[in-house]
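[Q] Does anyone have a clean structure-token version of this?
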Amino acid sequence: MKVFLPDGTELELPDGATGADAAAAIGPGLARAALAVKVGDNGRVQDLDRPLSDGDRISIITPNSDGPEALEVLRHDAAHVLAAAVMELYPGVKISIGPPIEHGFYYDFEFPEGVTVSDADFERIEQKMREHIKADERFVREDVSVEEALERFKAEDQPYKVELIEDLVKNEGVDTVSLYTNGPFTDLCRGPHGPSTKRIKAFKLQSVAGAYWRGDSSRRQLTRIYGTAFFSKEQLDEFLRRLEEARARDHRKLGRELGLFQFNEVAQGAAFWLPHGTQVFNRLVGLSREMCESHGYTEVKTPQLYDSELWKISGHWFKYRDDMFVTESEGRELALKPMNCPGHCQLFKMQQWSYRDLPVRYAEPGLLHRNEMSGALHGLLRVRHFVQDDAHIFCAPEQTLDEVKGCLDMAFETYAKFGIETKLELSTRPENRIGSEEQWDEAEAILERALEEKGLDYEVNEGDGAFYGPKIDLHMTDSLGRSWQLGTVQVDFNFPERFDLTYTGADNAEHRVVMLHRALFGSYERFIGILLEDTGGELPVWLAPVQAVVLPIADRHLEAAREVAGRLRADGHRVEVDERTESVGRKIRDAEVRKIPFMLVVGDREAEGGTVAVREHRKGDTGTVPVEQFSQRLTAAMLDPA
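[A] Here you go.
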């Protein structure tokens, strides 16, 4: 038979040859390095010892391969080694699932009554894992009948595996399942896995958490052990270093230290914004308003609570209801809005529009609520109560392309104020969607043409569009190398049909509008969280809640310090005076901890000369200048924020 390599080269192999045979045929070095094989146009990853088919397009996965597949295979291996070690150390433990995840792996366990596991147990578990790795245990796949698998796991008193098999039979109609064995451990698993445990060169267990079985809070809570694994100790050390830096930059920690916001269990998933944090929040909203005004948007304000009929028209009631806060009044079902789009559709529909009025651009810094699971909440990054810089454009079909390009221009202009560079993804039609194929073809073509005409590089993210339309997503990479989605621009032919949104054309006939959904910050809460972690809390001067603090050297300099602050405030700057009876060195250290951009020292010479001795955060002394000159410097920093 013949298979084809990524460059199109034909490789002739015996019938029934495996991925391992293909790697060996290419070269002994590749055979030694091979972990798995990617097969077919859809890139299915499978074990090296599984047979290939005539005509397959294949790619051998090694530790040096591009893409995430190599680490995913390795971390899946490590999850099985973890489960093997735990079963040996804790007789009677029940095992559930153990997948690879973005930065590592986990496995969920039900420990025997009275047994708890914490990070204090990690060294003992890791030592047992090292024994399995050193033993170079092969991962052996076996396909068995459902009956045989059920009999096996029932005999071993592994009810979670039994439930998983029964669900496979019910939902997928399978009559066989695959088992993987390494050493004494056998698991129900689809695979793929590497050749043996010895490929795991570096690993570390990281944390323990509770996790409900199948994500259902009415089911038993299991113990989830998280870990990570790499192909070298150097890679692991670098990952742990970056992880430690990420902990230091955790926005929840910085929020407390900088006096920006706090959280409390009385309002799960919602931040309590302190005065300085409220300043930051309001300045972002203010920036949105300035940008919207300059780009022709009109700000609107729509209700919080809507009759369920609105959500049924939009389709959210059937696709999103579990994520909404639902209540009842006078026999009517109501829901708090999780997004602004249906309300803006209703607002547009309540008025008569001519082609001369279009495009209509609505903007709303709208308060939204989503019923996120409590276990998924994460500071400002995943909340239940948030404000989004939402906007919707209603335009004629021939205006759509220019409006998409205008949204992109506005996005780049906004992100430039933070020095943020973005990469773009075109997210296409998902499997579960509404609307005709013709509408999706046209909507995707408009977005693609906008990107091409603006000469923008982008990647296609197949199947990740919204259920009502495709979108362009804008992502940033932060200082720790993490990717975050920020903004989105979406073309929607479906909501205008569902809500019957029309305008009167030049021919006096009714025509259907096209709707664009546009958000640049996403939610302000999430953006602030990302910004804090990216900058380590060192916000740009124009956004910092305190731009400068005046530090009198002694009590006799207090009056002069207050005068300096007053003059700067009169110029529109945010300034404090540190009036504590501490040494100026202590005041400087405290201001550095607070990450205040500028410290202005005032002593005898400065008081007499109307000057300030300027220290810049992390840079030290930058010289003594007249107060007016410093004010101009601060103004310049605000006008050129990037």
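[Q] Thanks! Anything notable?
[A] The first strand starts at residue 2 and ends at 4.
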